[in-house]
Amino acid sequence: MHSRLLFLLVAFLATIIALDAVRRHQGALAPRPAPTVFDSKTASPAPPPTLETRLGPSPAINQVTAGTPTLDLMARLAVRRRLEREGALVYLDSLFAKTDSVVVRWPDPGDSPLTIAFVPDTTIPGWSDAVFDDLRAGIAAWGGNSAGLRFREVAASDSADIKVRWTLAFPDSTRLGLTVLNWSPDGTVHGADITLAYLEGGAKRVPLSVSDRRRVAAHELGHAIGLPHSAERDDLMFPNATTSAPSRRDQATLQLLYAVPPGSIRVSQ
Ligand SMILES: [Zn+2]
Q: Cα 242 from chain centroid?
């Protein structure tokens, strides 16, 4: 009788170990999340590319498949409670809609600034390095931000955290900027690619004005540091932003994003 009980116990433990091994194997095979794309595409049919509509709503949806949550259940519940408490004042909801409830952000800044490389495209007719100054102005708009993120311009684009390129114009002429955020299943961002339009949208084929270039650069850098779109017109992260500096709400959203750890906040599968 005693040995029978022992046998059952051993069999039970063996089953648990086997199931755990299967679960770990499946975890190891979990696909990496697709990059999150923040674009500025307007809904079709495209309206005339006026100042207000060129930074249109962002319909890009990225399907994020099973990640590997790094936060344990209690930590996730704590983050959820904090987001519920403070979330009404900010706009992180639109981030979770894109990431399937994963807090996606850069690692804590510490002492190292995010490096930004400018990648010119001298094949663009009439190319002028003056666009660099407009990009620098867009970066400066986030100086002293609420998350303590700092930026450093670097020459080597291969190793830069954020790469900025230009294109003559997007196929959809109503689009002026596009940011692709690359992140790991644990919610940690490891790279951002910004593309900026050189020409105004529409048939005019003239370079974007300085003020437009600065506004688009500041808006796309907001995406590159993890911010989603805001529904409030006064915010820089509003899709049709009219300002070129972050609002208090933009800063509050950024602050909350970096006050919680990256990772899934889902409490059920
Ligand atoms: Zn945007």
A: 21
Instruction: Give me ligand 1 centre to Cα 30, in Å.
Output: 29
CATH code for the domain of 211: 3.40.390.10
- Compute the distance from residue 12 Cα to the ligand 1 centre, in Å: 54
Alpha carbon of 112 to ligand 1 centroid (Å):
26
Using the mean position of ligand 1's atoms as its centre, give its distance from the Cα of residue 218 in Å: 10
To which H or E segment does residue 257 belong? helix 248-259
Q: Which domain holds residue 9?
A: 1-30
Cα of 142 to ligand 1 centre, how many Å? 15
pTM: 0.75
Give the C-alpha separation, 37 to 241, whole Å.
18
Distance, in Å, from the CA atom of 204 to the CA atom of 227, rounded to the nearest integer, reads 31
pLDDT in tens, 17-45: 554 444 444 434 445 666 777 665 333 33
